[in-house]
Design goal:
The chain has 714 residues and is of the alpha/beta class. The chain is built from 27 helices and 10 strands. Helix 18 links the parallel strand 1 and strand 2. Helix 10 packs parallel to helix 12. The protein is elongated. The N and C termini lie far apart (102 Å).
């Protein structure tokens, strides 16, 4: 028997591994099992990945070497962390708290810098340039704990927002000072250096925040159906931005974060594209980066050299203390809670890629010695572990606190059971309505998005039912790519509207999403259109949507809230949803309403989601021409309507969809019918009588009378 094949396989198991298949398999096993194992000991998964890198890396059992492939994947992982941080940043909150971000960025740089220089110059006895570089090492930080905060859904907390914004300011300042320090040590600090740096920064900012958003908007709009191309395009923008940042004299991580900011408004948080970006990053690239951080840790260099250990302990303690003081000062100035202080500290205390890059540059330029370089490795290990533990513990406490505060309003209390129904008459707008539903749906709800197709009960009912079920299968594929839970229903009913109403009751839907009604046929005007019948025959919240282009094209949201809409039972739900939608799209809100409606909205916002809404006092609801003067083509128009028996109903709401289509033909439009109290149904007390046919009959007679009256006049 020939054993040569197996001998060749065994030869590949020498250390370190060189076979790319084995290397990749081992890294995937580490990514899979290390968080699962350490989870039993209540240790954050991030620490497991870093420790695994130490164990399997060059300074451990040496199964993995720090080669170009690992460097490539770890670089991608670091860029991914910064890109996602920019992408997930709540721009509305960031604009409101930009001054706080600047203040934190200054404190996060100034306090560590002011501690680092005296330690290097007076205590350790290094020269001016070396002490300046040690101070820079203290000031920089990498948000290694950001995936933990993101996992717990705390990225919109103001403490997180200002830390992310401040991090970029801190790291940018650090890298610019590093460039100045290097030029100074090499004797190249002259007018030409300052001119080149200034011009490159201006060009970089212009490309990232003027050119890239316009090109990206055109690409994502024109190739809306090419979902794979969208992801490839986004990746290319990230790496192009990283390269441009390097050309401009900045670190590539600044470019990746700038790419996230540039694309922030074009990629909603609940979109399919965002799900793909996060899934691939959290599954492959970011774990690669964390493993690579562990691979550079060499604890052996300290054995036998007590002075190196003393330097490492001193620098690590000072690095953590200075960042804690920066977080404490920020808490005192802006009156944050102790948990928010810990949140800021956990995000800003970890040192990884940025500090290593600075240390290597300083070492290669002979500014610092090997002891400082080795101490940097210890700083990376200790600060990453501390930051991860603090982030995990603080995030859990904040989550419990947030959960205890959710019983503020009747709707907030019901979020976990929210159920959205999408009845489909036209499968061509299936994807648009589904993506809109995914943006509206509360992430805490355990219920799926239900897609419904009602088939008329005629001779071809069974054939049409099979066809409808086949068409609904396409939505399952779409949902799987966006990780949304979907339930599809195909049913038979004599009347399509009745089938939709019946199903909404069976599944206890909270919201019904309807497509925009088509122009009425002559017969429909007498019998009653399907949309009108659904609206009048159910008490659910109904969103009638005219969405014929991507929502990312909208620049502002206009809410038209007529008098007394705040008295309706569904007021809290639609307001909460509209606010969420504006945050998903990163667009501002302007509301036209009266004083009482504004007070009701303000009270709700104070109790739930702090958001800035511009209110305009308005009373000319009969004159749509007046409204049109305040609305541009790129505004998303949300009109709060009402059923005929509702408290907020007004006569100008008749044929509202036709009026909106006439005066705002190119705008994306959402027509909202607020939920009604079931007790308002005058036939409810007669349980043995079905009021629906009687009500429909009365309405039909009224319409026929109006139609005949019009004919007689002619």
């Amino acid at each position: 028997m020939d054993f040569s094949y197996f001998e060749n396989i065994l030869k590949e198991f020498h250390r370190p591994l060189h076979d790319p298949v084995l290397v990749f398999a081992l890294i995937l096993m580490i990514i899979l099992f290390s968080p699962l194992i350490l989870k039993r000991f209540k240790v954050p998964g991030i620490i497991g990945l870093i420790i695994s890198g130490m164990i399997f890396g060059p300074y451990g059992i040496n199964l993995l070497e720090k080669n170009s492939a690992v460097d490539l994947f770890s670089t991608i992982g670091l860029l991914y962390i910064m890109f996602i941080a920019g992408l997930e940043l709540d721009m509305n909150n960031f604009r409101k708290s930009k001054h706080k971000s600047i203040a934190f960025g200054f404190l996060s740089f100034a306090i560590p810098f002011s501690m680092g220089f005296p330690i290097g110059y007076y205590i350790l006895g290094y020269n001016f340039d070396a002490s300046l570089l040690i101070a820079i090492l203290f000031a920089t930080h990498t948000m290694v704990a950001y995936p933990i905060i993101s996992k717990y859904g705390l990225i919109k907390n103001e403490a997180v927002v200002i830390t992310v914004g401040g991090t970029i300011l801190t790291d940018t300042t650090v890298l610019i000072i590093l460039a100045i320090n290097l030029s100074s040590s090499q004797g190249h600090l002259n007018n030409q250096f300052w001119l080149r740096l200034g011009i490159s920064l201006v060009l970089f900012m212009a490309i990232m925040f003027i050119v890239i958003p316009k090109v990206s908007k055109w690409f994502l709009t024109k190739l809306e159906s090419e979902k794979t191309s969208h992801y490839i395009y986004i990746l290319s923008v990230v790496f192009l931005a990283a390269f441009l940042a390097r050309v401009a004299g900045l670190d590539p991580i600044i470019g990746a974060f700038a790419a996230g900011l540039a694309l922030n408004r074009l990629i909603p948080q609940s979109s399919t594209l965002m799900s793909r970006i996060e899934f691939i990053g959290n599954s492959i690239f970011i774990p690669f980066f964390l493993i690579s951080v562990g691979m550079i840790v060499n604890l052996r260099v300290f054995f036998g050299d007590w002075f190196s250990i003393l330097i490492a302990v001193l620098l690590t303690t000072a690095a953590l203390t200075s960042k804690w003081l920066a977080a404490l000062t920020t808490q005192v100035i802006f009156r944050y809670s102790s948990l928010q202080r810990q949140l800021i500290f956990s995000l800003s205390s970890s040192h990884a890629a940025a500090i290593l890059a600075v240390a290597l540059v300083g070492f290669n330029s002979h500014i610092i010695d090997e002891r400082i370089l080795n101490s940097t490795i210890v700083i990376i290990l200790i600060t990453c572990i501390v930051a991860s533990f603090v982030a995990e513990r603080t995030a859990k406490k904040l989550l419990l606190l947030k959960k205890n505060d959710e019983d503020i309003t009747p709707y907030i209390n019901k979020k976990n059971y929210e159920h959205i129904l999408i009845p489909l008459a036209n499968f061509s707008n299936l994807e648009i309505l589904f993506e809109f539903a995914a943006l509206l749906k509360d992430k805490k709800s355990n219920n799926p998005i239900t897609i419904l197709s009602v088939v008329p009960n005629d001779k071809e009912a069974e054939k049409n039912l099979q066809k409808a079920r086949k068409n609904l299968d396409s939505i399952v594929k779409l949902a799987s790519s966006s990780e949304a839970h979907v339930n599809v229903i195909a049913t038979i009913d004599h009347n399509i509207g009745s089938g939709i109403v019946r199903t909404s009751k069976e599944i206890m839907a909270d919201i019904i999403l309807l497509g925009w009604p088509h122009k009425s046929k002559f017969v429909d005007k007498f019998i009653g259109e399907k949309t009108d019948n659904i609206i009048q025959d159910t008490d659910k919240n109904i969103f009638v949507c005219f969405i014929d282009k991507p929502l990312i094209t909208c620049k502002k949201m206009i809410i038209l809230a007529p008098p007394f809409c705040e008295l309706e039972m569904g007021f809290e739900l639609w307001l909460y949803k509209i606010i969420n939608l504006s945050q998903e799209l990163s667009i501002g809100i302007t509301c036209f309403c009266n004083r009482k409606t504004r007070i009701a909205m303000d009270n709700f916002i104070k109790k739930t989601k702090p958001v800035s809404i511009q209110f305009n006092n308005f009373g000319e609801w009969n004159d749509f021409l007046v409204l049109s003067r305040n609305i541009s083509e790129n505004d998303l128009l949300v009109f709060i309507s009402a059923r005929k028996d509702a408290a907020s109903y007004h006569s100008y709401m008749d044929n509202l969809s036709m009026k909106l289509e006439k005066h705002f033909p190119v705008n994306l439009k959402i027509l909202v019918y607020s939920q009604q109290n079931q007790s308002d149904n005058k036939f409810l007390e007669y349980k043995d009588v079905n009021a629906e046919p009687l009500t429909r009959g009365i309405k039909t007679i009224q319409k026929i009378g109006k139609g005949l009256g019009g004919i007689m006049k002619k």
